[in-house]
Amino acid sequence: MPYSTRLFATLLLTVMLGTCVLAQGKGTRALEEVKLDQVYSTYDLDGTGVLVIMLDRGIDYHHPAYLNADGTTRLAYVFDMIAPHDGNPYGVGTILDEDDINGDLMTDGPPLSNDNHGHGTATTGIIAGSDAGLNNNDFGGVAPGATIISVKFVQDGFPAGNGQDAEAAFFDPTYIAIALEFARDKIEELGLPSVTLMNIGSLGGPADGSSSVSRAIADFAEDHPFVCGVGDDGGQDNVTKGTVSQGQTTSIRIQKMEAGNMDVDLWYSGADRFRVRLTTPNGVVIAPATPGNNAGTRADGDGVSVWHNGTDQDFYGSTANRREVFIRIPSGTGVFTLELTGNSVSDGSFIGVMNPGTYSRDNKFLDFATNESSINDYSATPGVISPADYVLDPTWRDIDNVSRGLTGQGAPGEIWIGSSKGPTQDGRLGIDFAAPGEVLFGPYSANSFYARNAFLQAQGSNGLFGVQNAVSAAAPLSTGVIALMLQLDPTLTPADILTILQESAREDGFTGSTPNNTFGHGKLDAKAALDEVNRIVSTRDRFSRLPEVQLSPNPVRDLLTLTADAEAAIQAWTLTDLTGRVLREVKTPEVPTLNIPVAALPNGTYFLRIHTRQGATVRRFVKQ
Fold it and tell me: pTM for the complete prediction?
């Protein structure tokens, strides 16, 4: 479809939908599974007043899932870090604000920024997209009223086809710290409670919170809720864990049956000194020298490179006092043998990972092999909210009403075969909980790489929505739930959110006893999490410790009862909505108990400022 035609069709659809664009957006294909249906009926939340920041492959902001009823954008900013530098203070990329985006929506021609691949568009929609007025809870995002910022800092390569040019892959890990700086600035500027999702991560790095990127993430996550899925590296023996003894040699066979590049990243204690030798399938031996702490060595042979890095010289800026052996095999297949000899051993343990080594590939370790500790480096960062992925329903009907499905993914309720496992390399649990990501639906753009396969587009979606799965679906679903938590209580800290999600997660026959390295603390339960937020904010006064006034019932339908403690007496009250708008002010004779009729209020969250003999206090309640 020509761009001008697609733009006209999008705007026409928006106009025809009127005010239904956002109103019909609440939901997801996992609505009942995580009890979001109960959340919406109890608390009437949609993410309004919360900022969602997505660090991913960009976004198609022309998609009707990201438009208001009047055709204007729901995005506050797009930071396209891969676009030419526009002179912004971050030193890379192009920044579009709301006015820039709205202007671009009215202009024919190529968009100023886009997600030609489709991943960012689809996954952002699971968090905060509307269902584009299709009145289908399978398509709408969890928090369709949220404000959105999209940061494009990574790009997946794909070949030309379907009238679209090829696109080269791009990833620079130094961009992550810049993206977080931008996110921090915009959170302060907009003044909204926020949740950020970085929807990338695979095997490689120390996976213990010590890398330079992990330290930047940890600093951000201390004050701002930050989500990163555990990774899609489950189901294959892509991790090797073992011990090297003094004077002994431990051999690790590496099976590489994929012709493309493979990296092996192995770490061991800085207190040890290992001799390293790699033998290729052709019998060529590659043996880098054992370095000092401040040095790294390299040896090459048979097209393969092997680095042996000291504790202060590794490729990830780790502060964990560990040494790194990094192997790059650009091509070819066969079995490689890595020998580690204990020249000087104090600890002796090692852990190595390979990439690629996903369940669908025939690359794996043949010795000391496991799939434990396949969690990615970013998700392993302390303070990061790290969801795993389990199977909901791996089947769907495509746009032509043909039954489709993914096989070998696990049965409904089981962990998805590709979901990475804990623990972190420093022994922490790593996984907080699991959310259902097999299979969800997200917004599809007509000209994207995602949309090349019609069988991935969902029945009844008019080509606007299609399949999104893997941890890249479970993580945005979880992020959307966090947005609802922040709408209910904007003062929640990252630590509050993490604790609530862990403690409210549920066990079942698939999770077994929790916590564990597969499901973390259990399966995501949005209703239990929101109930806990409601309980906390109903009993904990963040504005004043005195006086004590209880509200019941809360949530409330008809009559709200205020009960003061024995020393206090209620003298007056002021009712406001979430925006601070005063709805009613009432003075009353001093009474210990007061009933307030609320049946006429629209469903939502409200605040009462209650004046007593002992002073004023603020209490929140939910009208349902």
Answer: 0.85
